[in-house]
């Protein structure tokens, strides 16, 4: 018996594609559609391709929409766009929720591209249990769409935990943990309990000295931005700051430090005035890349804020340090704000636009 079932879905507005089934018999099923959106870019605004000879006037998004069932059955979706693309494949591991024209909701895996001609994409759906299904989709370079079909994907493998995203080898980062401890557990005693791979832990009473580099290990610095909990008014307030970490080895070091912190007795405490900060090294990024990061951040700021509790967002009553970056940028629309960010001619200018008052 075939485990791929094609059904008409007359109210949808995307394109169907041919499907090839590769896996064994299944027990968990979802339904999906494959298609693309389309917009034509005016020729005088379209960017040139790498050869400088063709205008990329076709703007499209190729997608796989999970319209029924658990999207976590899919571990990833791989879009193979052919040898003319560099890179030729794009992998989507995190679907986004969307509203469909028929009023229903779906989870979308997708890639957005601009081309000067049509292509046929090869798509591989990889199940969390190991099953794979392939789809072939010719990009439609028009807005009108034939009635789409709906397909079933079934996976009988044991469902695995969601994968961590792979961290770039050599990608540098650092973390800061705002914490408090009971009066009898001072920062020096906490430093003594850190694991060996945290290096020589520096304890300082000076915030400015603590902000200086300490490549040999982590450091504990005072933090006046946090407050003690009501049940521990005489606490020690501090920030545990990592050295510069890198890749998977850095994550392992963070894990070891985290385990050591949980073993300290009496226990360390956190409250709504305290947070966990991650700093990512972007020194290898060109200005154009940084502009795009900032543009996307302010466009989706409200979505990213929704990941956090109200105490860690703009308008927080617990801390005056939370401010919207988007609201500081001149402009009433995303387009106007994007144009403002695009006007930055150097890194310092971009920082000033995004954070005109300076500070952390």
UniProtKB/TrEMBL annotation:
Residues 311-326 have a biased composition (Basic and acidic residues). Gene3D superfamilies: YEATS domain (2.60.40.1970). Residues 136-156, 309-337 are annotated as: Disordered. This is Uncharacterized protein.
């Amino acid at each position: 018996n075939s485990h791929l079932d094609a059904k008409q879905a007359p109210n949808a507005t995307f394109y169907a594609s041919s499907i090839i089934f590769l896996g064994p018999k299944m027990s968990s099923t979802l339904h999906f559609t494959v298609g693309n959106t389309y917009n034509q870019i005016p020729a005088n605004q379209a960017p040139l391709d790498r050869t400088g000879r063709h205008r990329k006037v076709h703007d499209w998004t190729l997608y796989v929409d999970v319209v029924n069932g658990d999207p976590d059955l899919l571990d990833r979706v791989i879009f193979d766009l052919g040898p003319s693309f560099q890179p030729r494949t794009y992998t989507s591991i995190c679907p986004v929720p969307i509203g469909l024209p028929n009023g229903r909701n779906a989870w979308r895996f997708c890639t957005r591209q601009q081309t000067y001609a049509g292509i046929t994409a090869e798509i591989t759906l990889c199940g969390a249990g190991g099953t794979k299904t392939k789809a072939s989709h010719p990009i439609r370079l028009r807005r009108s769409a034939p009635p789409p079909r709906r397909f079933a994907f079934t996976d009988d493998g044991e469902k695995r935990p969601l994968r961590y995203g792979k961290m770039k080898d050599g990608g540098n980062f650092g973390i800061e943990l705002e914490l408090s401890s009971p009066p009898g557990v001072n920062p020096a005693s906490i430093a003594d309990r850190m694991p060996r791979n945290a290096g020589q832990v520096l304890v300082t009473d000076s915030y400015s000295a603590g902000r200086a580099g300490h490549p040999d290990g982590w450091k504990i610095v005072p933090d006046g931005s946090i407050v003690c909990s009501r049940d521990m008014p005489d606490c020690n307030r501090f920030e545990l700051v990592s050295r510069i970490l890198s890749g998977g080895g850095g994550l392992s070091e963070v894990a070891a430090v985290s385990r050591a912190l949980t073993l300290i007795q009496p226990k360390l405490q956190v409250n709504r005035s305290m947070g966990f900060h991650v700093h990512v090294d972007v020194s290898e990024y060109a200005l154009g890349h940084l502009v795009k990061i900032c543009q996307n951040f302010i466009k989706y700021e409200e979505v990213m804020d929704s990941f956090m509790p109200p105490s860690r967002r703009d308008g927080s009553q617990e801390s005056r340090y939370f401010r919207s970056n988007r609201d500081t940028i001149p402009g009433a629309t995303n387009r106007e704000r994007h144009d403002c960010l695009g006007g930055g001619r150097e890194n310092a200018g971009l920082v000033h636009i995004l954070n005109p008052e300076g500070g952390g």
